[in-house]
Write a structure and sequence with these properties.
The chain is an all-alpha fold. It has 6 helices and no strands. The chain has one domain: Arp2/3 complex 21 kDa subunit ARPC3 (Orthogonal Bundle).
């Protein structure tokens, strides 16, 4: 039951990102909810769950999007792993502490995609893409992660038992 609920949630998340955020994208920048979820799972629960969720999310993205097959799968799995490693070495896991690790993961993931699609691009075009697309995308992903981490932290507060 739990696995089927996770599968439905992953499909819903991907569909929500592909439809709703297509229209709600200021300046053409859409948050990558799949990346944010993979990072948050790695950040909150550890490396192995982050890799598993990232792999599943990336595989779904590879099935339904254009581009080299497997690139989403391995970048999302790697991002889940990296977020778990970041969280393991952090002393504070407050909601704002997720910003920098998830922003760094977003930048690394975007660099992989930029390098894989750079055929015919010069260095100037790549630097322009970094400053005009990758960096704002990473900031938006980090801000979405702060809000999501705060909501999860409030929702999953453990009640002390008497």
């Amino acid at each position: 039951m739990k696995i089927s609920a996770y599968a439905v949630f992953i499909l819903f998340l991907f569909s929500f990102q592909a439809t709703v955020f297509y229209f709600l994208s200021p300046f053409g920048i859409q948050p990558d909810l799949c990346l944010v979820l993979a990072c948050l799972v790695g950040f909150r629960t550890g490396q192995v769950p982050g890799v598993i969720v990232g792999f599943c999310l990336g595989f779904i993205q590879d099935l339904f999007s254009a581009g080299p097959f497997g690139l989403h799968t391995f970048t999302k799995a790697g991002v889940g792993l990296l977020a778990g490693v970041f969280a393991k070495n952090l002393a504070n896991r407050a909601s704002y502490a997720a910003f920098m690790p998830i922003m760094a993961c977003s930048i690394l993931s975007a660099i992989v995609f930029l390098l894989s699609s750079r055929m015919g691009m010069g260095l100037g075009e790549m630097l322009h893409g970094f400053s005009s697309i990758l960096l704002p995308q990473a900031i938006v992903d980090g801000l979405v992660a702060i809000v999501a981490n705060w909501i999860i932290g409030r929702w999953l507060v453990e009640v002390p038992s008497a």
